[in-house]
Amino acid sequence: MMKAITFDQFGPADVLKISDVAEPQCRPDDLVVRVRAAGVNRADLTQRRGGYGRPDFGDSTLMGLEIAGDVIAVGEKAKGYRVGDRVMGIVGGGAYAEIARIDYRMAMPIPENMDYIHAAAITEVFVTAHEALIHLGKLKPGETVLIHAGAGGVGGAAVQLAHATGATVITTAKREAHEQVHRLGADHAIDYVNEDFSDVVARLTEGRGVDVILDFIGAPYFERNVNALNFGGRLVQIGIMGGVENARIPLERVLYRHLQIMGTVMKSRSQEVKHEMSRRFKARWLSHFGEAGLNPVIDSVFPLAEAGKAHQRMEDGLNVGKIVLTMTE
Questions:
Q1: Which of 83, 94, 145, 160 could covalently link to 212 via disulfide, CB atoms 3.0 to 4.6 Å apart?
Q2: What pLDDT, on a 0 to 100 scale, did the predictor assign at position 319?
Q3: What's the CA gap between 170 and 147, in Å, rounded?
Q4: SS3 for 52-110, per residue?
């Protein structure tokens, strides 16, 4: 048996509790990992509130999508890993537990000298950011990108990747987070509470617009996003936090400026596509992590038993960066 977070009914953060559950069994393509730290993601809040029902995402019916820890068993078809290796990666459920299993094709070695807490905060946000910004958005050195919510998990990762790519980075964030997004690599920060981002983008680009936009908001930003794109610009939609109602599409702008609009959500992709997403990110960026390179922003750390407090902090919008859960021996 092992300790894990469970809940008997959907509801607020205090429905989460720590329980004794059976350890996962090793399948042929699995690594079984002693979890040292687990990332908290908004999808976990949605699951707790009943947004997915009682899902089995492939690895476990337990909550949690992001782990860092030590390999304790290797499936017969798993390649490239041995017992004792330090790994991180995205799991199909089961991260909020002392032991989890992960498809070896979703696992990555933890960069040398990186601790488990930072490792647990990398894969979900950075893989998502890379897929949206680089693979789909095709951001190139010398281009200009607008990243909304640059102080958030995926947004902050995207700011770092865009800066490392050699792009000019514009981001939206609350005024109090501007210092942080500049440290991450933003060239310009827009206070979305008191400024209209489309006006600022027009001024910064002398009316040309940006080459790529990464948006989490949805309908309230959609028309302004399209109008803020340069010729041949790409809008990548990776969230709809502001809803979908009354989204207006300026079709003439799309047509005459040769614009591209695309969307992506990792959770609904097939396992094979997720393998490729992880592979692409690993090949391009894993070696860039370290003291002088890419690094996740950690907001706070909670013990596993206090998962409810971690959820409440995210739900209240208090976190700037990743919230991480840690396990005890």
A1: 145
A2: 86
A3: 6
A4: CCCCCCCCCCCCCCEEEEEEEEECCCCCCCCCCCEEEEECCCCCCECEEEEEHHHEEEC
Closest to 73 in 3D by CA, of 108, 23, 37, 117: 23
In the block, residue with structure tokens 């002398």: 206
DSSP string, 247-290: ----HHHHHHTT-EEEE--STTS-HHHHHHHHHHHHHHHGGGBS
Per-residue tokens: 229: 């794109």
Contact between residue 108 and residue 282 where contact means Cβ atoms under 8 Å apart:
yes
Pairing of strands 168-173, 86-90: unpaired
Q: Nearest to residue 110, comparing CAs of 282, 264, 245?
A: 282
Give the pLDDT score at 321: 86
